[in-house]
Amino acid sequence: MATVLVASNRGPVSYVRRDDGTLDARRGGGGLVSGLSAVAAEDSLWVCAALGDGDREAVRRGVAEPGVRMLDIDPGVYDDAYNGIANSVLWFLHHHLYDVPREPVFDAEFRRRWASYRAYNRAFAEALAEAAEDGACVLVQDYHLALVPGQLRELRPDLRIGHFTHTPWASPDSLRMLPQDVREELVRGMLGADELGFHTWSWAQAFVSGSRLDDEGRTARVRVYPLGVDGEDLRALAYRPAVDERLARLREETGGRRTIARVDRTELSKNILRGLLAYRELLMVHPEWRGRVVHLASAYPSRQDLEAYRSYTAAVTELAEEINAEFGTPDWQPVLVSVRDDFTRSLAVYRMADVALVNPVRDGMNLVAKEIPVVSEAGCALVLSDGAGAYEELREDALTVNPYDVTATAEALHQALSMPSAERAERTKRLAAAATALPPQQWFRKQLEALRALPEE
Ligand code: G6P
To answer: Ligand 1 test: best mutation among 46, 142, 270, most atoms within 8 Å of CB?
Structure first.
């Protein structure tokens, strides 16, 4: 039995089946993983989904990391819940990604998937109810598991339940696209928690204004915990010989030119296409940068089961090729795109970048905007969209842009490239201080303490 439980779709570890049939455990990265490892005690448990064949095989063979329980959910139900609802409906609503003349369509197929989403949430609620000690604290993560707090409270009213949303929260108008009963089920599910956490005040306020229900339900407390980065950990990772080597190679590839860097998942909300258009406009309007700058665009392949993501990834590569064809010369390639999961390369890019471009249309937090200033060697000017959660903490020392305004973004890139190096270094220092204000361990501990401090019901 556990006194502290975490639930998330993606867990801290995942298994890959080797050719010889044995299973290889790979530790996942990210703030949540390092945040929890700090509080992981004998009696803590992390409940997550088995994501692929390797994970399912591990569950079947009874292979597990201490303190981790993977749920082997029926693959069809899982696919409906993860791809069909969480990533195609909830993600799109919260990030305002719908192409409205065509989407969304809430038909019988949607209803079928919604029932799977409910069942997938229920599998988590049941596993948590079974494993939790009397009065235990449960911290449920993200939009995949929005119904868990309500379902779990029904099963175990004695538990202290928190829910944290890592995405933005949809504006009330966007949320109202959902069929009324589904919207109410979603909100009621969330309101099963004692405390609802968000990265920023904007997302918390959006939740509060879009969540008024007609009946008198329970009330949950809404609080803001802006996740930051662990500076020491990250610098230790970034200043390793393997990263030094990549850095030397990248410096050769870019011929010592100035660099504008971006690092994202291949994700629609990251606004990679408008970023490339802004770079193209920079080269058109400020020809003095031609031959003197390289745009390093790194994207980790993500959610490739969804057609919208596959075609977006292809469009990014095509646009980069167009720009290279339009402006490139025999000894200068204007854009270097890397669509690979390559964290070592990203760290090298973080160290060398003169300018970082973080221009999402909407983003829960965006940790890249916080990681780059912490790792940068000589200072990096940050061009930051006002749609990123990180904007609330970093806006003073970033060059901020409306993510839809390509011309303003091009101009901000020009200003960033032209910034005197002393100013750049000063701003980077202040950005790094803001970025490390609430590192993952403290972020997690604060939420746990808040739950523990709740009065007994
Ligand atoms: C966002 C979500 C996370 C999710 C991550 C990667 O940051 O808030 O919950 O894990 O994207 O997406 P994926 O679908 O690969 O888990």
So the answer is: 142
